[in-house]
Design a protein that fits this description.
This protein has about 140 residues and is mainly α. About 85% of the residues lie in helices and about 0% in strands. Among the domains are: about 50 residues; about 35 residues, no CATH class. The longest helix is centred in the middle third of the chain and has 89 residues. The protein is rod-shaped.
């Protein structure tokens, strides 16, 4: 009888150990599957992040190039402005307009037309074939 109890106890222990091993195996497989899925998600997120970083680097390089070009244009505009200021300092427009009002009026009107055409050109407006002006629009 003791042998039967010992056999039942041993079989129970072996069965318990077997069930524990089976449970451990199933749990480990589920964890491996979950971790594999999570790894795939992380890798996809990393790839998207790398693409975003590369796009930002390309944009930064493009903006640096455009900024240098813009700075060059700004310097040219300042030089042109200084040239115009020097020209206006040389001439007394009030005195000249009193002596030759027709000439000054014509020059100012033509300059205003050229300026408005330049604004229209820059903003994409205006007529497709504008009337030619006396001077070229820059």
């Amino acid at each position: 009888m003791i042998k039967i109890y010992i056999l039942i106890i041993v079989l129970s222990l072996v069965g318990g150990v077997g069930y524990g091993a089976y449970y451990y195996y199933k749990d480990t497989q589920e964890r491996i599957q979950t971790l594999t899925e999570n790894n795939a998600k992380v890798m996809a997120a990393k790839e998207a992040q790398d693409n975003t970083i590369n796009a930002l680097i390309e944009d930064r390089e493009k903006f640096e190039t455009l900024n240098k070009e813009l700075q060059t244009n700004l310097n040219a505009a300042h030089d042109y402005r200084n040239t115009l200021i020097d020209k206006l300092r040389k001439h007394d427009l009030a005195k000249l307009s009193m002596k030759k009002p027709g000439l000054v009026e014509k020059k100012i009107n033509n300059g205003t037309k050229n300026l408005f055409r330049a604004f229209e050109k820059l903003t994409g407006g205006g007529t497709p074939n504008p009337a030619p002006a006396n001077k070229r629009v820059q």
